[in-house]
Amino acid sequence: MNAKQILQLAGISGALAVGLGAFGAHSLEALLVQNGRLDTYQTAVNYHFYHTLALFGIGILAKVKPEWKGITFAAWNMALGILIFSGSLYVLSLTGITWLGAITPLGGLAFILGWCSIIYLSFKSK
């Protein structure tokens, strides 16, 4: 994945985060309250936004530091984290399928790997 693709992915993810956040706040609020999952859904939206911004920053880093060849590892992990962490919480909030909570930490692990890879790259570079 190159810098342009990372930035495009960040744009798509950001648009989805806004759409899912607004949809949850307006159209799904009654269902989320009924399921007792309003806070869970909000957590999904928050982490979706935070890591979309991280993905955007990684895209900018990839443009500024093209010699950081491992930067795509960070981008993939942020994207995977959004998909697994936020995605599982979105589905859990809407369906009540509680076993999805068991895979949510895998998304958190992907986030941690993404952040750690940025740390590693910053120490590795001159």
Q: In words, what does this structure look like?
A:
The protein starts with a helix and ends with a helix. It is elongated. It is an all-alpha fold. Helix 4 (71-95) packs antiparallel against helix 5. It has one domain. It is built from five helices and no strands.
Lay out the secondary structure.
Blueprint: H1 3-26, H2 29-35, H3 38-64, H4 71-95, H5 104-124
Helix pairs in contact: 1-3, 3-4, 4-5
Distance between the termini: 23 Å
Q: Uncertain regions: pLDDT < 50 for 5+ in a row?
A: none
Number of individual domains: 1
Residues in β-strands, percent: under 5%
Count of helical segments?
Answer: 5
Radius of gyration over all CA atoms, rounded: 16 Å
Write a short abstract of this structure.
With 126 residues, this protein is mostly helical. The protein is 83% helix and 0% strand. Helix 1 packs antiparallel against helix 3, helix 3 packs antiparallel against helix 4 and helix 4 packs antiparallel against helix 5.
